[in-house]
Amino acid sequence: MRYIEPTRVKVLMMMFFTTGVLGIIIGLSIAPPSMTMMITFMGVINVGLGAFFTFIFLTQVQKSPDKRKKKKKRD
């Protein structure tokens, strides 16, 4: 998998976690009985995506600079 900047991954994590928690709360309390299960299930999916991006954030390796473009010092 290619390297993703940590700030982007953090934004995606927060976005999915907040929409997931909000979806679960709305699905369990505010939604009409016919849509309760669907909205709650979508909230759980968003929390799962947030967990996936957390895993990516914690396990990706720092991008190393390209050694081909670096100038070598000559003594």
What does this structure look like?
There is one protein chain. The protein is 64% helix and 0% strand. The chain has two helices and no strands. It is an all-alpha fold and 75 residues long. Helix 1 packs antiparallel against helix 2 (36-59). The longest helix is centred in the N-terminal third of the chain and has 24 residues, at 6-29.
Order of helices and strands: HH
How many H/I helices?
Answer: 2
Beta-strand residue percentage: under 5%
- Distance between the ends: 40 Å
Secondary structure class reads mainly alpha
Globular, elongated, flat, extended or rod-shaped: what is the shape? rod-shaped
Overall average residue pLDDT: 90
What's the total number of strands?
0
Largest sheet: none
SSE layout and pairing:
Blueprint: H1 6-29, H2 36-59
What are its keywords?
mainly alpha, rod-shaped, 75 residues
Short characterization:
Helices cover 64% and strands 0% of the residues.
